[in-house]
Amino acid sequence: MDARRAEAKTRLFTMLPRSVRDLVLWRRLRSDPFLAKRSMGTMCVTSAGMVGGQGMSWGIPSGIHPLLVAVGGIAERAALVAGQWVAREQVGLTVSFDHDVTDGSPVARFMARLRDLMERGHGLTESR
Hints:
By secondary structure, the protein is of the alpha+beta class. It has two domains: 1-41, no CATH class; 42-128, Chloramphenicol Acetyltransferase (2-Layer Sandwich). The chain has four helices and three strands. Helix 2 (18-31) crosses helix 3 (33-40). The chain is elongated and about 60 Å long.
């Protein structure tokens, strides 16, 4: 299907009343988990940092995905680095897992790895 036809179908679908969209979409997604995965993926990321104003903010994500991440605001806070307390920028991050899908041990390893990558600034380059 070309992009124009897909866009036209999407536009038509969004013009339907919400009750009709919910009936058509959610009934099918609930009955076919493989279609739900193909359509919506396995994780959801949202940002709460833009509404917090000054200081660190965080949120409690909710949804139907097995992994939900809410990225909050960035604030300067005290952190223990190599035995010394120093001021560092920190981001508020809330991660929610569906324990019916994922066991606690892989979740703990994932979170440790994510924290390590974020602390090292993995993938970021210095701007000059």
